[in-house]
Design a protein that fits this description.
Layout (H helix, E strand, L loop, with lengths): L10 H5 L2 H7 L7 E11 L3 H9 L4 H4 L1 H6 L6 E4 L3 E7 L6 H4 L13 E7 L3 E6 L2 E11 L2 E11 L5 H31 L15 H17 L4
Antiparallel strand pairs: 1-7, 2-3, 3-4, 4-5, 5-6, 6-7
Helix pairs in contact: 3-7, 3-8
Length: 226
């Protein structure tokens, strides 16, 4: 991610407290390396994909596998000047109901959570208990988007470590395929002649509202006045 503008702010100002928070979580980023990259071409506007990423109310219905992993009642989104942060605590091993389900991350009682950072306008950092995902969202046209996924792990070695890593990638790919279906359906809905505008959910769409506000401000500054 790079900005070539002469008046671009320093990267540290854009990322805010992300580095400090990741360090405090003891996430071993220095020991992680790129393991796999996948490119997804999606039939939707890039802003539709960002909207979908920034709200979590579709998780219980659209992402049953992910819903089994996180404590959805504790899911929340916090906004900052140039980015937002989504918290999703992982369900503990003592969750009796969750024990009866197929779990990807069956953890101990140690506090763990998935962290999702979105940096305006098109960059995401997704931290899970065993990996980091980087997403870059690039518009290809008004109704087409390229989503670049990269997975970073500590060197998994062979045997069980390698199998666990492949399972994590497959899990992420499943979530991505579910998101693609949602985004492409929303794009079709936006073409409806009966569609106008909707209202934001105060509880669930503060991240989406934040994105739209930043986008409006940026475009307002860049359009020359007559």
């Amino acid at each position: 991610m790079a900005c070539l503008g002469e008046n671009a702010p320093p990267l540290t100002a854009v990322l805010g407290d992300i580095e400090r928070e990741v360090t405090a979580k003891n996430i071993p980023m220095a020991n992680m390396s790129l393991i796999e990259r996948r490119d997804y071409t999606i039939n939707c506007n890039w802003k539709v994909y960002i909207d979908n990423y920034l709200e979590g109310y579709h998780i219980p219905i659209a992402h049953p596998g992910l819903f089994r992993e996180i404590d959805y009642d504790q899911y929340r989104v916090e906004t900052f000047p140039t980015y937002s942060r989504q918290h999703a605590p992982m369900r503990p091993a003592s969750d009796v109901e969750a024990l009866d389900r197929d779990r990807r991350f069956l953890r101990t009682e140690a506090e763990e959570e998935a962290l999702y950072y979105w940096v305006f306008p098109n960059f995401m950092l997704n931290f899970y208990p065993d990996n980091l995902q980087i997403n870059i969202i690039l518009p290809l046209g008004h109704d087409s988007t390229l989503t670049i996924f990269e997975w970073y792990f500590e060197q998994p070695g062979t045997g069980g470590g390698w199998e666990s890593m492949q399972n994590s990638i497959a899990f992420s790919d499943q979530v991505q395929q579910e998101d693609i279906e949602i985004c492409e359906t929303v794009q079709k809905g936006l073409q409806s002649r009966s569609y106008d505008v909707g209202r934001f959910s105060v509880q669930r769409e503060n991240g989406v509202h934040h994105f739209h506000s930043l986008l409006y401000h940026t475009l307002s500054q860049s359009i020359p006045r007559r």
